[in-house]
Amino acid sequence: MKLIDDISTQAAFLQSVRRDIHAHPELAFEETRTSDLVARLLTEWGIPVHRGLGKTGVVGTIVGTGQQSGARAIGLRADMDALPMSEHNSFEHASRHAGKMHACGHDGHTTMLLGAAQYLARNRDFDGTVHLIFQPAEEHGGGAREMMREGLFEKFPCEAVFGMHNMPGIAVGSVAASPGPVLASNNEFKAVIRGKGGHAAMPQLGVDPIPVALQMIQAFQTIITRNKKPLETAVISVTMIHAGSVPNVIPDECVVQGSVRAYTAETLDLIERRMGEIATHTAAVFGAECEFHFQRNYPSTVNHAAETAFVREVLAQMLPPEQVITQVPIMAAEDFAFMLEQVPGCYAFIGNGDGDHRLPGHGAGPCVVHNPSYDFNDEILPLGASFFVNLVQRWFAQPRAAA
């Protein structure tokens, strides 16, 4: 593994920054302390800072010393927000705020980009401009979309944009990057079934919405097995059913909610249309009515082929061949997808290991993201920062057309 020596010597500093952020988690669009920390460090390193995009977003700009530095630019992105969940860990840097936790590693993502920023600010021998995008609200709220709505790429034009997420289960020292869809779209649905309530002992006098809901839920799965092409992947998950308040009363209403994941727009269009048809007509068969809502949150994260090939070339110069791996697409979602819809780029995945790095005092659960026992692996901070730096240097070392 070839790391940048000056970044490796900063490992203890990067760990302290990461653990400080972890101990002070902030939710979507509330990342005031985190953005203050990011802006302060960037300013100390001589990096001009723009604040306020997406409410708490921070963009730092580093201009290289090359002749074309004003003509070419790329973006590097890290997310900053935490999750609304309680941490089960009790080590020293565990969350100090009940109901808030960095359970997805955004503390580490922010720190890796800060590590790269510190080095690039001191070593500007590249022929281009780097925009450091510290984004709020990845988990809830679509912070990438909000920064873009407020002019992110108009104010800071980029010919390509790159991001990275830690991945538990991938060995430390390995990084995955693959072209095409790597993460699914994130969508929600809500079916409000309205029947006619009454006494549980006299069901013939009413229209019970609960059997309607049960039929509807089963029929939704036929979209996956009988309407969708077998080789196209998608998931419909019913995650909430709410009806009734007492055992002897048939309710007037039953609400069914859940999540839909898919990789292609065509598959998602099919699912949305068929779910609406099934919801409406199933209710009608039973004499009920149904109000169906479908909300598209995040699109599928689709890596661009040329930029992904470039990322793999960078990784090949840093890591043994067996550690530059393929990312198997998963059904999680990521709002970096919005950026990739507007600007070509690649989203890579850096191995976080299997949890052996966790200190005494960690929770009993597995070290996987969105788990109260998770913790980011500080060992990979220098690797992530070195990757970002090497990416910048190699990108601007080649002509734009080749890139």
From TrEMBL:
SUPFAM superfamilies: Bacterial exopeptidase dimerisation domain (SSF55031), Zn-dependent exopeptidases (SSF53187). The lineage of its organism: Bacteria, Pseudomonadati, Pseudomonadota, Betaproteobacteria, Burkholderiales. Residues 189-282 form the Peptidase M20 dimerisation domain. Mn(2+) binds at residues 104, 106, 139, 165, 370. The keyword Manganese applies. The Mn(2+) ion enhances activity. Pfam families: M20_dimer, Peptidase_M20. This is M20 family metallopeptidase. Keywords: Hydrolase, Manganese, Metal-binding. PANTHER family: METALLOPEPTIDASE, PUTATIVE (AFU_ORTHOLOGUE AFUA_6G09600)-RELATED, PEPTIDASE M20 FAMILY MEMBER. GO terms for biological process: diaminopimelate biosynthetic process. Its cofactor is Mn(2+). The keyword Amino-acid biosynthesis does not apply. It comes from the Bacteria. InterPro entries: Amidohydrolase, Bact_exopeptidase_dim_dom, Peptidase_M20, Peptidase_M20_dimer. It comes from Xenophilus arseniciresistens. GO terms for molecular function: metal ion binding; N-acetyldiaminopimelate deacetylase activity.
